[in-house]
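An instance noted here:
***
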Amino acid sequence: MYVILMYDCGEKRVGKMLKLCRRYLTWIQNSVFEGEITEYKLKELISMAKDIMEEDEDSLIVFKSRSDKWLDKEIVGVNKNEPNDFF
């Protein structure tokens, strides 16, 4: 499945959440990720995110689609995930 994931965490947890999400998905914007992922891996990611989060303060939002071909993506301004030679 294809997902778009975004989180809003307290300052102390942002770095941990960023590292976790980068292990599973592609970073596209501050606190926003996208990519193909299996149902099992998504459940694993969410479970690990819950361990980092303070559920009464933080949030995690996941939009799911069968495939990225069902989404139209338009970037206006800077594409923060533009590939370069340094990765």
Q: What stands out?
A: The chain has a mean pLDDT of 88. The radius of gyration is 13 Å. Residues 2-60 form a domain with the Alpha-Beta Plaits fold (CATH 3.30.70.240).
